[in-house]
Design a protein that fits this description.
With about 240 residues, the chain is an alpha/beta fold. The chain contains eleven helices and five strands, in the order ααααβαβααβαβααβα. Strand 3, helix 8 and strand 4 form a beta-alpha-beta unit. The structure holds adenosine-5'-diphosphate (ADP) and magnesium ion.
């Protein structure tokens, strides 16, 4: 309002606009600026590694992933219903890209989102526990509408680490949404969580109300770098 009131007042005078119309226009500008700032703040707070959108995702390169269903997820209804989402697939198949894009869409829709890697989250929880502030960390996680846990499966955890992660997942069950990406099919999650019983209990809760996508196929990264190499080594046309 401070930035715009002078200019709008001059315009209003020139147009012989009544005072209430001027005030309305000024207030609308303030409201729009505040909501844009709030979106930007939510995106910053989410901590995406790189900000990526669905419009740069090539669905034809990933035929296993139905475009319509992903667009539907980006609308966020599933988060209101406390559903979860799992993206399972090999390295480079676009899991992080899609998870980020869905998270970004939810930030824009006014949801509180956080993006973490599984290893980063476990480290954060372990540190919080050592420093006797685990409760506070868990409460902060609990306030999120969507917690995105990326890269479950690349590193396995110590038993206490796995238990902390289990606690977060179990706490969210039917209350808050999770989006988990993993390179491991569910059958192999036991290797990460140490112990079949904890794995079974965790999978049971995670997948009970869950949108599951298998994103198998060739690595997009690998394909792009092969294409670049082929372009470089291709003989120039005469
Ligand atoms: P993952 O997390 O499954 O290992 P990423 O999402 O990190 O894979 O994808 C690797 C790279 O390839 C990223 O730069 C990503 O933006 C890009 N990428 C992957 N799949 C696609 C796709 N279908 N369309 C456009 N870019 C893609
Ligand atoms: Mg990834």
């Amino acid at each position: 309002m401070l930035a715009e009131h002078d200019k709008l007042a001059r315009e209003a005078t020139a147009r012989d606009e009544p005072y209430d119309a001027y005030l309305l226009r000024l207030t609308e500008l303030e409201v729009a600026a505040r909501s844009a700032n709030a979106v930007a703040a939510r995106i910053r707070a989410a901590g995406f590694p790189v900000v990526k959108d669905l419009d740069t995702f090539d669905f034809t390169a990933c035929p296993a992933l139905p475009r319509q269903r992903v667009l539907e997820l980006a609308r966020g209804e599933w988060v209101c219903q406390r559903f979860n989402c799992c993206l399972i697939g090999g390295s480079g198949t676009g899991k992080t890209h899609v998870a980020t894009a869905i998270g970004l869409a939810l930030c824009r829709a006014g949801r509180r989102v956080r993006f973490v890697t599984a290893a980063g989250l476990v480290t954060e929880l372990e540190e919080a526990q050592q420093e006797h502030r685990l409760d506070r960390t868990l409460t902060a996680l609990d306030r999120l509408d969507l917690l995105i846990v990326d890269e479950l499966g690349y590193l396995s955890f110590s038993r206490p680490g796995a238990e902390l992660l289990f606690q977060v997942f179990a706490d969210r069950y039917e209350r808050r949404s999770l989006l988990v990406t993993s390179n491991l099919p569910f059958g192999e999650w036991g290797t990460v969580f140490q112990g079949e019983r904890m794995t079974a209990a965790l999978l049971d809760r995670l997948t009970h109300k869950c949108h599951i996508f298998e994103m198998n196929g060739e690595s997009y990264r690998f394909r792009e770098s092969m294409k670049a190499t082929a372009d470089k080594t291709a003989k120039p046309k005469k």
